[in-house]
Amino acid sequence: QSVLTQPPSVSEAPRQRVTISCSGSSSNIGNNGVTWYQQLPGKAPKVLIYYDDLLPSGVSDRFSGSKSGTSASLAISGLQSEDEADYYCAAWDDSLNGPVFGGGTKLTVL
Amino acid sequence: EVQLVESGGGLVKPGGSVRLSCAASGFTFSDFNMNWVRQAPGKGLEWVSSISTTSSHKYYAHSVKGRFTISRDNAKSSLYLQMNSLRADDTAVYYCARRRQHQLVRGVYWFDPWGQGTLVTVSS
Prior knowledge:
The complex is a heterodimer. Chain A is mainly β. Chain A has no helices and nine strands.
């Protein structure tokens, strides 16, 4: 059972927009920055969004993040087949002194 | 190019031990907090342990505390994870990851980059 809650899967057609939610608590999302990772099949995770809504250089602006209270969301617009991956949210947890992760959301582009 | 390369995984018997290594290159290793994160087959990510730049602070997930030991050698730009008393549920790909942080805002951390991972299988 993951500390952060994400839907196990989402699906949407190409060129459409999809959002992935992530719910936590005051000891993690509510008090610290949220990071989103993309994990392509067979690969290591890669950071997509950090500090709630910031994009690292090289990440497409089709990806965007937001946070409100103890919840966060990742939005992907203009879906492409290469976006098919697992997406994980994460946040530092004050009680753990380490990060907690969501269970991951598998994105299928129909 | 910033790079992390793990090694040391393999098949281990329950109750056995293994030591993982992570070789860093392309950045000043001693400037960064380093971490281990694992992923059981078909499962999500689980943070395992972190170590501060001078090794003065080490933190562990509850599931590995007392069995795993994290360490680093800044002269060799290397990170280690000594894993003892291994159990079947320790079977996972183990990733090392560099921790980045916001310079002005507390509680803003992220892992970048990650290594390619090394698989540890605990089975008789």
